[in-house]
Amino acid sequence: MNGKLHSEILDLTGNIQDGYLRAVTYARLGYNLYHLKSPMYKRAFDKALTAVNTIKNPYLMAKALLEIGTYIHSISEKASKKVFRQAYEAIKGFPQPIKDDLLEELVLRVLELNVNGSVVEYALSIENEIKRNEILLRLVKHLINSGSIQKARSIVGEISEEPWKSLAIIELLKAHLQREEFGSVMLLLQMLDSEYWISEAMREIARRLKDADVPRETYEKFVNVAMGLSEENRFNALKALLVSIGELGEIDFVLNVLSKLEDPERLEMLRSLVGTIVDREDLLLELIKKVDKRDFDQVARYIMDNLLEGPIDEVYKPAVLEIGKRTPNESILVKVTTYLAKLGDFSTAMRFASHVSDNYLRSLAFGSIAVAMLKKNNVSGAIDAALEVKDPRWGSWLLSEILVKILELERKGVVKEDIEKKAFDQRTLWEKSGGS
Fold this sequence. Notes:
Blueprint: H1 2-13, H2 19-35, H3 41-52, H4 58-73, H5 77-91, H6 98-113, H7 119-124, H8 129-145, H9 149-156, H10 164-178, H11 182-189, H12 195-212, H13 216-228, H14 231-247, H15 251-258, H16 265-277, H17 281-290, H18 293-309, H19 317-326, H20 330-343, H21 346-353, H22 359-375, H23 379-386, H24 392-412, H25 419-432
């Protein structure tokens, strides 16, 4: 009974006047008949291919072949490859931009169906560089996801423009990292030539090395690779790698590598590291405790500048206290004092400020405490802090500023945090007027 019905359906399809619709309908019927285990599926697909030859519009003929190739794929990959090849040969004669649009659709169909064969040839036939490179990049990703790493790598050389070429290399690099094929990763690094993509690669490498819990020797190999890149890229590569490794908690390793570098390269990398881990109080504290004495003040300054620019948070207090304990540098002690005063820890802030002997810097230190106290409406405490500057000229200046701010607070309800600027302006005035 079903056989008779199936035959009647195929016969009725022949009444469809539109050649494109008739061809596609036969293909759809063949697909369904195959899954119904009806032997008539072969007859349906034969009729579909015959109907294609009746389509007078070349564009619709190509589209019909794409549809037939798609439906026939689940039955025979070999047959679908032949149909897609037929579609390709038809598309090659089309004018632009229709040709590239159809080639793109052909490639995407073949990729979606995971058809082995001529997909690279189809993709390379796309004339528009942007479209071709985008398609080739998708092909690389597809091959990687299907485990065909070597095939994917062979396509990278066919990608002619940036950023697609670098994107493809990064995708390959990730795949090799996942497999812990570090030798291949090192070779791929040599193919990157822009600061941005080298940095991206190094971040991926650092993450994978950490996840894989590799021995230190492996980290060192990648450091050597970074050092071995061209002079133009060496610094950027090494910085990106070390900062990424540091961000993942390997502070000891990073400091050990940096200890072998010269100024100013070493200090610039430390600055970048601080900027990256500034939101990680645990890593900041570890860096402060372990950084070499020769670099401590610079690192401490980087850290304090970053912390003072951001939200004042109690979580950073241990790091700030450690800096205060380690540094004899009075300008850094001013920053420590300022942070602690902003936190409201006035007694500790006063203790650090008392170690500042330079009159100008001492006025900044106690001035920051006085302003913070005023913001807490502690007027008498602010005056006492101002009086801690014993130098007649700077002591008078600070007291003047604080007394005015007391009235400004009463009048406006706010206190300006401009002691540092005003102190600088006052010092400049005295210098120009011949004062000390």
